[in-house]
Amino acid sequence: MVFGKQRPNTQGENETYVSETEGVDDVQEIDEVVFNGSQNSVATGSQGIKDASKPLIDEVVFLGAGNSKNPGGSKKWTRNHCKEQFTSTYTRIHAHFFGPMVGKKADIRRCSAVCRDRELFERLSKKVREAENSGGISKSLKNSMMSKNAQSKKKFEETFGMLERNAVDMKITRSLCANGISFNVLRNPHFIEMLNATKKAPASYIPPSYEKTRTTLLDECVRDVEKELAPMKDTWYTQGVSIVLDGWLNVKHKPLINVLAVNSRGAMFMEAHDFSVVEKKGEEIAKYLIGAIETVGPNNVLQVVTDNAANCKKAGEEIAPVFKHIFWSPCVVHTLNLIFKDMASSFYWLSETYKNGKAIVKFFLNHTYALSFFKENSKLELLKVAKTRFASHYILLRRLMDCREALETTIVLNSFKEWFKKGNDTIRNGGLPVIETIKDEVFWDKVEHILAITKPIFLVLKFSDGDGPKMGEIYEKMDNMLGEIKDAMEENMFSMYYEQIRSIISERWDKMSIPLHCLGFALTRKFYDKHYLEKLAPGGLKRRAPNKDLEVTNDVMDAFHKIAENEEERKVLTICNLLYKERDFWEDSNASRCLYDGSN
Description:
By secondary structure, the protein is α+β, with helices and mostly antiparallel strands. The chain has helices at residues 90-98, 112-116, 118-133, 150-178, 189-200, 210-234, 236-239, 282-296, 310-322, 332-346, 348-366, 368-375, 392-402, 404-410, 414-422, 425-439, 441-464, 471-488, 498-512, 515-522, 530-534, 550-563, 567-582, 594-597; strands at residues 33-35, 38-40, 60-65, 75-79, 85-88, 241-249, 255-263, 266-274, 301-306, 327-330.
């Protein structure tokens, strides 16, 4: 045998005595090998060698002596299952196949073939256990035994439990791929609940059939969801609700319109309608909206929110005669996005800068080598903004400015220059303008000044696109936005265009603003705070409390008249509005009660 030490033999000349001594590294001393009466200093193979005390010897092939000065030390070997080579003693061969013992350090890498193959693992385990049960394992090889104690068995069970988990993971991944299911489903809490429920199911459990799922179980699932939504629906009677209309195209490019019911408790999807066979005229959309309003209850609906398209505006006009108390409100986010587009179409310097920025992004994303050079110098990715993305002008230019240093570094690299020089005409013709643009200081100055102008618009858009009630702050945000733009353009290279920008924003605001914005502004308490009012607004304007702003109070009265159910209620609201205009809310904390009960 390779691992052994010849001792004086009293029983027979050809009998070999094998021992294994313990050390810190479990290294065994091996002086020489004696087999069938012949002596070999180095064994070059293990075929045909049998030793009951070392059952795993047959699973490896010895290649020669190791680097040890002791001729009987560690040996070079490779396993039959792959061609990886190691230098070690028998103890580490055992650890290679089964892992280290409990409390021992893993001084050798686990065998990947055994980890993947359950049958191979069971075969080797059985082989070692049979040798141990027959008493053939020497006590000196105590670190190479599987049945040493219960902890070692538990260790092996846990080790192969990890292998079984990997197999289950692979089954889940293949199932998702085979059915075209997005990997985002793994983040869905319902998916985790499904797996947990499956683990608790009886061993004889089989999944439901196709027919049962699409009929009985689906109906039951709908009833469960309706029960869970009942608390949210109960708030419609006390807090009111907004009906939100959203149009989009599915994967088959069919035009769909979603209807959502939204209030302070959150958004609830109601239904979706396919308009592929119906022309999306204002009248058709109005019919669809009226059905949704009837479902929720007309008395619970405060407003209908759509985008600014002409057909949606027409639908809002069709609803007004039917439900006189319901407001039609255009989407604020869509309106702010249209401001970006109006500015791009009105100012050549913005459209030209955006066009040059898109050319830079397009060149790098379309050429793999150029993109790899860029990624070596940047932790950020270049963004190719979709046409449907809000504020695409600001997002693209903002990311370019963040990546400016990386872009300038990339184009001066020798490797980039060499690749560009060897490129074809398409690369050179398309890349020369891009390189010149990146080198152009005027271009970056324009980007910086455009970002300063458009940042206030982007921040209001981002705020409006977030979760939670926003109606009470839109009016103040729009006023502050104009002031911030004015401040940003004082020393801006495009300062001469301020009045035109202000005109574009005001024109869009006039189309978007409804009395409900002023009512929400008037009912927001923080705008009456004394310390808030003492601070100057952006643009150097003095702030006024909502009840001291004539435009606000007039729109509040218009909103009261619209939502009042009868003349008596309208008179009460008129009295409340008069008292509201006269009070100083920052001096009387109880004055706001007049808005609700008419007290003075």
